[in-house]
Design brief:
The complex is a heterotetramer, with two copies of chain A (218 residues) and two copies of chain B (230 residues). Chain A is an alpha/beta fold. Chain A has helices at 7-15, 85-93, 129-135, 196-201; strands at residues 23-26, 44-47, 51-57, 74-82, 99-103, 106-108, 113-114, 117-118, 123-124, 138-143, 154-155, 170-173, 176-181, 184-190, 207-215. Chain A is 14% helix and 33% strand. In chain B, a hairpin with a 2-residue loop joins β7 and β8. The termini of chain B are far apart. The chains are: A alpha/beta (218), B alpha/beta (230).
Chain lengths: 218, 230, 230, 218
């Protein structure tokens, strides 16, 4: 049934939301993959552990002092700067980050986000997610449209503990691109081979069909 | 206070007692005071409150759980939702043997800064409408809700820097300022592990990150490379 | 936002309108954006709110009072109790022609930092029991009284740094970080005057004080030496 | 009548309160003179405009970036560091400064200080005084014992607007050294040639005579 996008293609689609001159924070997990698709853009990546201006994830030559917030070694670009965690979150909370892309577990129609605690596993970690969700000028969530056993993750109300209220601006899943405006989901794009009805049937919350709905261009 | 310089990490931490609260700088591999943590592990001091951004597989901090030296952890990243293996901490947490206070990372950093800066509390929008808001005062200003968060201090801070001069002025390398720079201001006794101690005057004044005023005890150690495992 | 580089200070400030609030960095002679201030003086824009640590004899800021461009000053140091000559500002203040909000310097700095950091307010012990406490909420924690102080932001910040690269990363020299470093975070449009603009990569990442993310407009100017007179 | 100490000798007496290893903030005016008497001590001076580790005031070769909080050019020592004003007052308010020496206009028996506003002149400047008075571990006030026309400045209650409540630990004047403990003035020392009665007659507030009262050693 699920003929949706791979994680790489979700990341590719997310990268199209980024434009020259933007300062961007990429969350741990799927959002990290977005950095594979921005080589042609003049974008500055911020990592909440205190780096502005990092590049690709490095597979070898591990340097313990040059890591992103996921603990992965990263390339330090010539324009990079470093700062402590209070300054880093001042930057985030103070509204200086143009776009943040985070992973999600559940999103509600009003833009509530749950992405830090999995009750089934009895735990989780907040990390920087709550501050980033509150502080970024625009918040994009990338996630699988449904759980592994096919249950919707875009809900009337989040069932998991919240990360932040009414913070999500755009959801990009393996099946669709959905905007949230004034507590209302708007279906903008469907993945290649996925119908509007399929998306609606796998989404719990009510959704408006965008007036210019189209297939994702990847 | 004049900084004291020690020849090994065991001596550097000799002032730490059981029942102490200790801040540990570092963010995963960057700026972790691993030599000081290992000395603490070897010392066997019990019933500690550990204040650190993260505790997990590959952290030296998780070693302190081997002999249950930690009674409480205050952290932002303690239990990974993904990953098959569990850290010592996570196993003890699920058995109810160790307490955990989980804090958003920006609030964690700001509380520590406030603790060092004589700020009695601050208003943050982070955590409003979440479990983080439980038992906290909500203050509304300019049509926006904020949580009143209180300062965080500790008896000791263990930090790691790149270089120090003999008066305790510190510089960090890359992304290792993280919590080290703010924890250095927020504990009664600050113990710094550095890769190299140089003469006064060798560090450029414009380049100093942590002035020596904040440092009490100093030790030069070969850095221990740590890396998260899953 | 990409930083825009201008060839002179007149162009750099061309976005400023009358009725704007403007933060001015600097502490007396150190880090004063004097070229930008002179451009503002020449431009003749009126009805400004000036947010600056000090305004006085020898300040370029006091020049803005010559043609009454300033309607209100928010400062920590505005009227010297000693000294025979009066600044333009002081004379206008005593005639009731300009408004003054006087703030303790630590509170002034922290309010600006809060403004840039998304902090909705903070508790400080400074000013409790003084005129500074008038009309402010007093909050008691741990048997100590604090004033609730609110964040301070402005439409523009005029700052001065030593060097910039072409992406707006800045370094300061000596005691000129003062209010420049925090004001750079707390205004909708930040205009920086620097002594030299260099290529990207010429400033060491570990040495950068203000990351380019905070800077909107940049101009290279020969620094103007100012010195307080009495 | 006033055969008391010169400003330089008040500063000299104040310098004897400083010891090796201390971090010290010296206020504008008289306290600045204290720096002339600490060459033999291992003391680090903090200036609230963002310097730790400055030395003498320089009379020539003015460098606009190397100034103290009074705007005077100062020598930068090899161990110096620089920081912004938020960090500087974090250091001050956070209790990291061992001793601050400020000038005073009026001090009350309970330790209240007034030193920023002169009603007769219709103005004043707060500067860093309120934060320093609140934040320093120990606060020493240096001032003339009386006004120019002989009125007491050590009062039952300050008449001028306060800098901070119950903040003063020690007062050093041209006539005496007075400690404040638990809202009580204690006369510790008199200036050479000044009698206890003279000090008492020029002090409005009640004062205990210290059990080991002595003449100042200068």
């Amino acid at each position: 049934m699920n003929q949706g996008l791979s994680r790489e293609l979700i990341a590719l689609r997310a990268s199209k939301e980024l434009h020259d001159g933007m300062y961007v924070n990429l969350g741990i997990g799927l959002p990290t993959l977005v950095s594979n698709f921005i080589d042609d853009l003049d974008i500055t990546l911020q990592s909440e552990n205190g780096i502005l201006g990092y590049g690709n994830i490095l597979e070898k030559d591990f340097d313990p002092d040059f890591i992103n917030a996921g603990g992965q070694p990263v390339e330090i670009l010539p324009e990079a700067s470093f700062f402590n965690s209070a300054e880093s979150f001042a930057m985030i909370r103070g509204g200086h980050i143009d776009v943040a892309i985070l992973g999600g577990l559940q999103v509600a129609a009003n833009g509530d986000l749950a992405n830090w605690f999995v009750p089934e596993r009895g735990g989780g970690s907040i990390g920087g997610a709550m501050d980033i969700a509150v502080g970024a000028k625009r918040l994009i969530i990338t996630m699988a449209h449904t759980t592994k056993d096919g249950k919707p993750r875009i809900l009337d109300r989040c069932l998991y503990p919240l990360t932040a209220e009414t913070c999500v601006d755009l959801i990009i899943t393996d099946l669709a691109v959905i905007e949230i405006v004034d507590n209302q989901l708007i279906l903008l794009e469907t993945a290649p081979g996925i119908t509007v009805d399929e998306v609606l049937s796998l989404t719990e919350a009510d959704m408006i069909i965008g007036t210019s709905i189209r297939e994702m261009s990847l | 206070m004049v900084v004291e310089i020690f020849s090994n990490s065991k001596q550097a931490i000799s002032v730490v007692n059981s029942n102490s609260s200790i801040m540990f700088g570092g963010f995963v591999s960057a700026g972790s005071p691993s030599n000081l943590i290992i000395a603490l592990h070897n010392d066997g001091i019990q019933n500690l409150t550990a204040i650190a951004n993260n505790i997990g597989l590959g952290d030296k901090l998780d070693m302190l759980c081997e002999h249950k030296q930690i009674a409480k952890v205050i952290a932002t990243f303690a239990i990974r939702a993904s990953g098959d293996r569990k850290s010592n901490f996570e196993e003890q947490y699920h058995r109810g043997e160790v307490e955990l206070e989980l804090i958003p990372q920006g609030t964690f950093a700001e509380r520590i800064r406030a603790g060092g800066a004589g700020i009695g509390g601050f208003l943050t929008p982070t955590g409003v409408g979440t479990v983080v808001a439980e038992n906290k005062e909500v203050i509304r200003h300019n049509e926006k809700d904020y949580l009143l968060e209180l300062p965080l201090r500790a008896d000791f801070a263990f930090i790691k820097a790149y270089k120090a001069d003999k008066l305790g002025n510190l510089i960090y390398r890359g992304a290792s300022k993280n919590f080290n720079e703010i924890m250095a201001t927020a504990a009664d006794c600050v113990i710094a592990e550095v890769e190299e101690i140089v003469e006064v005057g060798e560090l450029e004044p414009d380049r100093i990150d942590t002035p020596g005023i904040f440092i009490d005890r100093l030790v030069q150690c070969k850095p221990i490379e740590i890396r998260w495992t899953s």
